[in-house]
Amino acid sequence: MNILTLFTLLDGAAGAAGAASGGLAAGQGQWSMWIMLILIFVVMWFFMIRPQRKQQKELQKFRDGLQKGDKIVTIGGIYGTVVEVKDKTLLIEVDSNVKIKVDKNSVIKDFSAVNQQ
Q: Of 91, 116, 117, which is closest to residue 103 (Cα–Cα)?
């Protein structure tokens, strides 16, 4: 055996060992990537999606509990007082003897407890 063959064999053995350890490190890197992606999703869930769902449930509860005499604001910015409540619609009075019919889903706020100036 000459020295060139010996170096070639040693280089091949070192390359195989490096590939084996590199493969292990690459596998660990993939797992850490998946763990980071899952953690990012969990953080987004708690800070963005969960509060929005909670707010939507509260708004739906408010809309289902509307009664005659409640002061409301619609999505379009129309202020009025509820005159009649039906399953999906409301009849609101916006001025003396001016009544309009709106969809319940267009109501966003309740001003019954707020002092009007």
A: 91
Cross-strand pairs, 72: 80, 110
Q: 55: domain range?
A: 1-64
Looking at the whole model, is its pTM more than 0.85?
no
With vertex at residue 58, the alpha carbon angle to CA 57 and CA 62, rounded to the nearest 5 degrees, is 115
pLDDT digit string (tens) for 51-90?
A: 999 999 999 999 999 999 999 999 998 999 999 999 899 9
Together in a domain, 107 and 97? yes
Domain CATH number, residue 83: 2.30.30
**3-state SS record for 66-91:** CCCCCEEEECCCCEEEEEEECCCEEE
CB 83 within 8 A of CB 68: yes
pLDDT of 5 strictly over 70: no
